[in-house]
Amino acid sequence: MSKSQVEIVNNASLLATDLQGAEVESKSAFLSIVGSFMSDPTGDIKRLRHMMTLLDKGSGGHLDRGAGFGEQARAVIREVGRLLDRGEWQPDELKSVFGWTARLLQVRLPPRRKGPPEPSGGQAPHHQGKRQPTKPLGGLSGKNLDVLKSIQPPKPDDEKS
């Protein structure tokens, strides 16, 4: 590889920023486009470009998927295409850029929900924390309860001074 790791990470950061500006919400849309290139030992850039051309024409059904995935896939195809158009990348460098980009997309994205869901109607909110036992050690059988009590530290008033 002729590019330094710093240059690769900087380019990955720029690509992640461009993708987020184009409303790419997760690394899954990104990896669905570049994943086969990343796992290919030869790293054929012409094959990646050809695959992206086919996807952009609707092949594979990526663009028809719901929940905004199709728009995200279009954005990935556009932004990765711009990166490839520069023509300055070796396959191993691109794999590294794509790996860093996926990681940056994962850690930079805000959580999908900003808070707990609102209760609907007159229902009580769903409790998602740890359940508190109704009585201490209440779920233990007699045998297990005796063993547990025998290994508990003595209470302060039971200690002899």
Mind explaining what this structure looks like?
With 161 residues, the chain is mostly helical. It has a domain at 5-108. Helices cover 54% and strands 0% of the residues. It has helices at residues 5-21, 27-39, 45-56, 69-85, 91-108, 142-151. The chain is elongated. The termini are far apart.
Question: What is the element layout, followed by pairings?
Answer:
Elements: H1 5-21, H2 27-39, H3 45-56, H4 69-85, H5 91-108, H6 142-151
Helix pairs in contact: 1-5, 2-3, 2-4, 2-5, 3-4
Beta-strand percentage? Answer: under 5%
Q: What kind of oligomer do you see?
A: single chain
Average pLDDT rating: 76
Which range best describes the helical content: under 10%, 10-25%, 25-40%, 40-55%, 55-70% or over 70%?
A: 40-55%
